[in-house]
What does this fold into?
Amino acid sequence: MDNSKIRCFVIGALMMFLFVSIKTQAQNVENGKKIYETRCLVCHQADGGGVPNMNAPLDGATNVVGNDITRLVRIIKYGFNERVELDGLYYSNSMTPNPDLTPAQISDVLSYIRSSWSNKATKVTTVQVQQGIKGSQKTSTK
Ligand code: HEC
It folds into this structure.
């Protein structure tokens, strides 16, 4: 192979790699959207705005776009009923647990809520979810 052929090959391989990684990310969010629509929308609403005093909003929520992935993983998997202050407000409803979602599905739905509406946070990987589940078992008091 001469130099220009090698260059062509390298550029081609790079483009393929980019294409595949962009596609996988989009796939994540697309799957996450479906999970959101079937399991979360009923409480958190299509616009992620929640229901005042009942269901916490996800759009613009500090925790949702924050760095504590373990907490988010734990909330999705085990539910949430702590009546703690979230961005200055309290919510009376209890979030149902989702024990049957796989780590990949949890990463998809978290990636979706972190990058939808006005949220612009990083995606969550399956590995982060697995670490989060492990971490939460160690620290869980329940
Ligand atoms: C039955 C209603 C309900 C469903 C279904 C539900 N949630 Fe929730 N969610 C809540 C409530 C209520 C809270 C706040 C609970 C509290 O304050 O104790 C909450 C809190 C959260 C939080 C934490 C928000 C913050 O600011 O810390 C996240 C993240 C979240 N939900 C994501 C989801 C996702 C993703 C799904 C779908 C897999 C889902 N929820 C399904 C009711 C629900």
Notes: The longest helix spans residues 3-39. Residues 39-40, 42-44, 55-56, 58, 61, 63-64, 72, 75-76, 80-84, 86, 91, 93-96, 98, 109, 113 surround heme C (CB under 6 Å).
